[in-house]
Amino acid sequence: MATENMKLKVKTGEKDGKNFWDDCGVLFINRNPAGEITSIQVRHNMFPGVDMVAFPKRNDDQE
Q1: Within the chain, what is the greatest distance between any pair of CA atoms?
Q2: What is the per-residue pLDDT across 19-46, written as a single tens digit (0 to 9) for each?
Q3: Are 63 and 28 in contact (CB under 8 A)?
């Protein structure tokens, strides 16, 4: 089972044509051996200690 981690970023500013970004969280995508998504979780710094899910984590998902 594979888990993908993706950083969430928010644009914090722009100066001289350059964009500035701040890390604000992480997205976890859990997949089964066939590559199908089994669950998605989000951790965001605006909501510390709160796990947000697109659909619930299964018992056999690894973190």
Answers
A1: 49
A2: 999 999 998 888 888 888 888 888 888 8
A3: yes
Going through the chain in order, the beta strands assigned E by DSSP cover 2-15, 18-31, 37-44, 52-55
What does each C-alpha distance from 46 to 4, 10, 23, 27, 42 come to in angstroms?
22, 12, 11, 14, 11
Whether pTM > 0.70 for this model: the answer is no
As a whole number of angstroms, the distance between CA 22 and CA 53 comes to: 22
Structure tokens at 54: 């697109």
Residue 36 half-sphere exposure, CB side, CA atoms within 13 Å? Answer: 2
Token pair for 58: 């299964």
CB 61 within 8 A of CB 4: no
